[in-house]
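seq:
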Amino acid sequence: MDALRRALGWLSLLYALIFLSFGLLHAGIGFGPVREPVIVPAAIVETLCAGAMFAGAYGVLARRAWAWDGIIYSHAAALGGVLMGILSLALGAGPSSALLSWYHSVIAVLLATGLAGSFYVSRVRGATASGPAASGATTPGSGDSGATAPGSGDGGATAPGSAGSRRPRRGGPR
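struct:
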């Protein structure tokens, strides 16, 4: 689990740098012979995707409590941005190139794979960390509400909202 966490974090950092590079290309800044047409909306979306991926990478690599939610949201947001770019190019809203087509298809597959891995980890973590066996909780309909019957002599605490927790308090010592 830890290896997958680190891998997703470092890959998210790499994806953020790729988004930032393409955002600069769409803003008119070339890298040597590599040039792309200036598309301001694409530059804005790619910069936002880079920010989301940086935030997700930070959360995972710094082991923040919100890391798994952050990595899922950042991958989903970036994938949405890429799909919006694919759709706009398919509708002819801007100039296209072979590099743009390749970039969109590859990054979409990578983001979808990262999103699937993030969902897998969150599902596995949720099942092991908060499952019924781990917390001592019972499943609905199992017949055990977790509440102690009043007067059972059990001495256990009653569950909030159960019949035993609604007994009126009597004044004086018991």
